[in-house]
């Protein structure tokens, strides 16, 4: 569990803000999920299976970070649905949309 907190603490700027927001939302919405890492990225898992993770922009010098939902997330919506979302910064709109996405995924 400490690895997830360490991965967030090692982040900087928008990556840190987004990863912390995701962790805060998941902790609030699904306290049963365990913080961990997936390939060094901050993640949350249920029964050892990753539900959601954050891939920092800084990892590959990318323009944006990505919040992604693994297949154990409850995101299914017919035969086609998004599993990851690009994020540049934390705003009130981003916070609300991420809350909605996380609530569905961990529900």
Number of domains: 1
Could you please say which CATH topology applies here?
Answer: Aspartate Aminotransferase, domain 1
Fraction in beta strands: 25-35%
Shape estimate: globular
CATH class: Alpha Beta
The computed structural class is alpha+beta
Radius of gyration: 13 Å
CATH architectural category: Alpha-Beta Complex
Provide the helix percentage: 25-40%
Number of helices: 3
Mean pLDDT: 94
- Order of helical and strand elements: HHEEEEEH
Q: How many DSSP E strands?
A: 5
User: Order of strands across the biggest sheet?
Assistant: 1-2-3-4-5
Provide structural commentary.
Strand 1 and strand 2 form a beta hairpin. Strands 1-2-3-4-5 form a 5-stranded antiparallel beta sheet. It has one domain (2-106): Aspartate Aminotransferase, domain 1. It contains 3 helices and 5 strands; from the N terminus they run ααβββββα. Helix 2 (13-29) crosses helix 3. The chain has 107 residues and is α+β, with helices and mostly antiparallel strands. The chain is globular, with a radius of gyration of 13 Å.
Please give a handful of descriptors for the protein shown.
Aspartate Aminotransferase, domain 1, globular, 38% helix, 107 residues, alpha+beta, 5-stranded antiparallel sheet
Q: What layout of secondary structure does this protein have?
A:
Layout lengths: L1 H9 L2 H17 L4 E5 L2 E6 L2 E7 L9 E5 L14 E4 L4 H15 L1
Antiparallel strand pairs: 1-2, 2-3, 3-4, 4-5
Helix pairs in contact: 2-3
């Amino acid at each position: 569990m400490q690895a997830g907190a360490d991965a967030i603490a090692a982040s900087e700027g928008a990556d840190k803000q987004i990863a912390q927001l995701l962790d805060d939302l998941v902790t609030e919405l699904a306290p049963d999920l365990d913080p961990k890492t997936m390939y060094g990225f901050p993640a949350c898992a249920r029964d050892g299976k990753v539900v959601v993770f954050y891939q920092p922009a800084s990892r590959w010098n990318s323009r944006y970070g990505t919040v992604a939902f693994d297949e154990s997330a409850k995101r299914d919506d017919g035969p086609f649905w998004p599993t990851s979302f690009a994020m540049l910064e934390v705003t009130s709109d981003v916070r609300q949309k991420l809350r909605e996405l996380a609530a569905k995924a961990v529900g």
